[in-house]
Amino acid sequence: MSVYVKKDNKGVKKSDTATDKRICNFLHQILDDKYSFNKILDPCCGDRRLTELFDCDVINYEIKEGKDFLKETNKIDCDLVIMNPPFNLGGSGRKLSVEVFMDKVLSLVDNQIPIILITPMGFRLNQRINSKRWKKIRDTYPPITSIISLPLDIFENTLFHCEILCFNCNELNPHYFLDI
What we know:
alpha/beta, globular
């Protein structure tokens, strides 16, 4: 198991880490209990495990399959977005890649639908008063209605502070601990 320590991992930033099945099962459990979805968008689907338990149509994008969500220009009709975007994405400048994906999602879907985002905690926290991201999350993004705390070692061979942010998920509890 590796801990991301800058000096020990210089130049090694894995960006393709599969979503742990326990997260997939937990998200399906809490969402399926409260919502009924017809069409889900997963803009960075990997092996499709985030949506495999849902019984509905799924719109998948996966860059390794030649479908780059960040190049999409057409509006997307769906009633849930669920994503575990890569945490490291070259060429995104000072923006975290999670922010790049969230901005793109909000440019293409109805901003009133539920959005589930697996993210490093630094996306929401570790901000300065004048940070553009701080202001964007606070003032522009849909409301964060639920936060799911994840254990540090939930991702295989990686120790990284992560959480799940749920936007527009008014039927969910305000806070969960991943029930493993």
